[in-house]
Amino acid sequence: MSGDLHATVAGRLRRLDQRYTPNRREVVLSLLSAGGPLTIPELLGAGPGRAQSSLYRNLAVLEDAGVVHRVPTADGVARYELSEDLTDHHHHLVCRQCGTVEDFAAPAALERAVDRAAAAAEAAGFSPESHRLDLVGVCARCRSRGERAKKRE
C-alpha cells in the first residue's frame, strides 16, 4: 500500500508542478500512521525538527493536490488527514468540548441509505462526488470528566 500511496502522492504533486520532497513525505507518513486527524502541534511533534512555517506551506500544497483533507471541527482548530480516496472510507466523531476527532465506520445500512440519496440527487441533475458524516457531541473522556466534576460539587 505505501509504495502505491507514495506513487499516487508524487503523481498528484507533479500535476501541480510540485515535488514530493522529504518533508512532504514525512507529513504523509505521519498522517498515515496517526489513526485519525492531527492538529498542527501534533504534526510538529511527530517529526524531528519540523518548522511550523514549512509545515503550513507543505499542508497547503498537499491539500491543493488532493492528498490532504482539512477536517472541520467544533473547536475551530484545524485537523488534517489523508484524503479519503487514499485511505479507507470513514466518518468522524467530533467532541465539542475538547475538539478531538475520531474516525468511525458507519453501519452498512447507513452507507446504503446514503448511496440511495446520492442516486436520487443524480436523478435530480446533481452530480455527487463524496459524502461526509461528522457526529458532533461529547467524547467519553469529557463526559467522564463532567460526571466526576458533578460528583465533587
Key attributes of the depicted protein:
6 strands, flat, Arc Repressor Mutant, subunit A, Dna Ligase, domain 1, 2 domains, alpha+beta, 153 residues, 3-stranded antiparallel beta sheet
Question: What general outline do the C-alpha atoms trace?
Answer: flat
Q: Looking at CATH, which topology of the largest domain would you report?
A: Arc Repressor Mutant, subunit A
Class per helix and strand makeup: alpha+beta
**Stretches where pLDDT falls below 50 for ≥5 residues?**
none
Tell me the β content.
Answer: 15-25%
- Summarize model confidence as the mean pLDDT: 89
User: CATH superfamily name of the largest domain?
Assistant: Winged helix-like DNA-binding domain superfamily/Winged helix DNA-binding domain
**Which sequence of SSEs, written as H and E, runs from N to C?**
HHEHHEEEEHEH
Please describe the topology of this protein:
Elements: H1 2-15, H2 22-34, E1 38-39, H3 40-46, H4 52-64, E2 68-71, E3 79-82, E4 91-95, E5 101-104, H5 108-123, E6 134-137, H6 140-152
Parallel strand pairs: 4-6
Antiparallel strand pairs: 1-3, 2-3, 4-5
Question: How would you sum up this structure, described in words?
Answer:
- The protein is of the alpha+beta class and 153 residues long.
- The protein folds into two domains: 1-86, Arc Repressor Mutant, subunit A, CATH 1.10.10.10; 88-153, Ferric-uptake regulator, C-terminal dimerisarion domain (Dna Ligase, domain 1, 2-Layer Sandwich), CATH 3.30.1490.
- 50% of the residues lie in helices and 15% in strands.
- It is built from six helices and six strands, in the order H-H-E-H-H-E-E-E-E-H-E-H.
- The protein has helices spanning 2-15, 22-34, 40-46, 52-64, 108-123, 140-152; strands at residues 38-39, 68-71, 79-82, 91-95, 101-104, 134-137.
- The strands form two sheets. A three-stranded antiparallel β-sheet has the order 1-3-2.
- A hairpin with a 5-residue loop joins strand 4 (91-95) and strand 5 (101-104).
- The mean pLDDT is 89.
